[in-house]
């Protein structure tokens, strides 16, 4: 398109838009030299380039922003909470199995240094418990060895006087309550049931009459314990978790362990060959 | 687009979108509402939008929100205001060229004004402006040319008055 007085505005705009090549730029400059009356026009055309006012800003950007990872954080927190709740429930299950010889499970328990440290009263006697419950250093030799030693110890303890057996299975807090507990009527239950019935203030009368399961009215904790016990059994049956098998006292024993949030849970069973 | 990228969009483009809209509406509160609405739409669809396309999506959404608002409110008062100023009189001599340009901009047809604003404020290419305003590239070029020549004519008249 030949530059002339009819189309020079289009060339001026094209120059502003960066659409002219160097040759066209030179041609336009030469044209404006030839027509000085158009130079004012050219200067005003350049002034139509709009410049944003940097003082005009959107002041409340925070209201537009979204919390980064907010949902993820919420889910993570919920996940952590539910895992913690599961860990607590598993601990309950562990105690329940430990205290009920009617179950085929011989011992289900957990170990957590963090948990022990979190309970000052317990921590005060942690060393004595360690010394009492297991052979020093045995915990580092793996669950099967540890449980084998504990089970052997349990058999030996059965031969001891009832009072000694009773004290062996109490924590320091429970031991402080021992005098009061000892004044309770003697129950005709097996040793484990009796000890934990006493300590946990179970419903003795109804338990003896056979009108309750022996642990008072069923609570939500009992229901959760049962649910977790089933889940625990299933995990054992389905076979997830770390497994270890060994021969002990003529029986074939299987130990399944699973680590959740730094707490290792064990499930130990006598299995039929 | 992730939440982080969305928040970066807020930092990078909120001011630009706001300037673009407020220059059209000349009403800060309405412009603020339009920008907030545009970002809400962006957030609602952020998982389907590529971060590279977020800016033009944002401007396009804000532009269409603004058009809806203008049509709803029929803001003809701007033109009246501009015409009043353009009549000149003693005050016309005190009006500097920048102010004159603002007023001239307000007199431009909506589509021309938006094309030239996107071009100069945001440096968008003709193609990008076409995407936002739903025009072809050649239409964009024509509208920008018309906008500039109209602005220049207005400046010439003001310049002569001064």
Strand order of the biggest β-sheet of chain A: 1-4-3-2
Principal-axis shape of chain B equals globular
Q: What count of domains describes the coordinates of chain A? A: 2
Q: Write down the secondary-structure element order of chain B.
A: HHHHHHHH
Number of strands of chain A: 4
Largest interface: A-B, 29 and 37 residues
CATH architecture of the largest domain in chain B: Orthogonal Bundle
Strand/helix succession of chain A? HHHHEHHHHHHHHHEEE
Distance between the termini of chain B: 52 Å
Q: What is the domain tally of chain B?
A: 2
What would your notes on this structure say?
The complex is a heterodimer of chains A (273) and B (162). In chain A, 54% of the residues lie in helices and 12% in strands. With 273 residues, chain A is of the alpha+beta class. Chain A has a four-stranded antiparallel beta sheet with strand order 1-4-3-2, with helices on both faces. In chain A, strand 3 and strand 4 (263-271) form a beta hairpin. The longest helix of chain A has 30 residues, at 70-99. Mean pLDDT of chain A is 65; it is low at 70-79, 100-140 and 211-216. Chain B is built from eight helices and no strands. In chain B, helix 4 (77-86) crosses helix 5 (97-107), helix 5 crosses helix 8 (137-161) and helix 6 (110-122) packs across helix 7. The interface between A and B is medium-sized, with 29 and 37 residues.
């Amino acid at each position: 398109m030949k530059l002339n007085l009819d189309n020079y505005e289009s060339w001026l705009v094209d120059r502003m838009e960066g659409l002219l090549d160097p040759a066209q730029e030179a041609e336009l400059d030469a044209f404006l030299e030839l027509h000085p009356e158009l130079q004012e026009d050219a200067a005003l055309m350049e002034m139509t380039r709009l410049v944003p006012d940097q003082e005009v800003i959107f002041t409340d950007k925070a209201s537009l922003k979204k919390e980064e990872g907010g949902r993820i954080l919420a889910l993570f927190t919920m996940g952590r909470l539910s895992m913690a709740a599961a860990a607590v429930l598993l601990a309950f299950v562990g105690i329940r199995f430990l205290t009920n010889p009617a179950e085929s499970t011989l011992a289900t328990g957990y170990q957590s240094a963090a948990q022990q440290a979190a309970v000052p009263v317990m921590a005060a006697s942690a060393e004595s418990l360690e010394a009492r419950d297991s052979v020093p250093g045995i915990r580092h030799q793996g669950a099967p060895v540890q449980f084998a030693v504990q089970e052997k110890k349990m058999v030996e303890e059965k031969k001891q006087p009832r009072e000694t057996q009773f004290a062996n299975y109490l924590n320091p807090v429970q031991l402080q309550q021992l005098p009061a507990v000892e004044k309770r009527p003697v129950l005709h239950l097996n040793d484990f049931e009796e000890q934990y019935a006493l300590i946990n203030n179970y419903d003795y009368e109804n338990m003896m009459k056979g009108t309750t399961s022996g642990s008072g009215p069923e609570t939500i904790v009992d229901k959760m314990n049962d649910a977790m016990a089933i889940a625990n059994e299933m995990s054992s049956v389905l076979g997830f978790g770390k497994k270890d098998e060994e021969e002990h006292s003529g029986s074939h024993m299987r130990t399944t362990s699973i680590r959740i949030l730094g707490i290792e849970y064990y499930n130990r069973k006598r299995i039929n060959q | 687009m992730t939440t982080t990228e969305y928040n970066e969009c807020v930092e990078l483009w909120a001011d630009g979108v706001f300037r673009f809209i407020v220059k059209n509406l000349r009403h800060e509160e309405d412009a603020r509402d339009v920008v907030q609405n545009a970002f809400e739409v962006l957030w609602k669809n952020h998982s389907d939008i590529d971060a590279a396309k977020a800016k033009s999506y944002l401007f396009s959404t804000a532009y269409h929100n603004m058009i809806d608002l203008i049509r709803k409110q029929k803001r003809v008062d701007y033109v009246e205001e501009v015409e009043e100023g353009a009549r000149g009189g003693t005050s016309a001599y005190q009006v500097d060229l920048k102010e004159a340009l603002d007023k001239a901009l307000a007199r431009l047809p909506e589509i021309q004004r938006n094309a030239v604003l996107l071009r100069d404020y945001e440096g968008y290419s003709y193609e990008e402006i076409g995407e936002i305003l739903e025009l072809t590239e050649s239409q964009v070029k024509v509208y920008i040319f018309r906008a500039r020549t109209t602005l220049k004519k207005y400046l010439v008249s003001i310049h002569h008055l001064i």
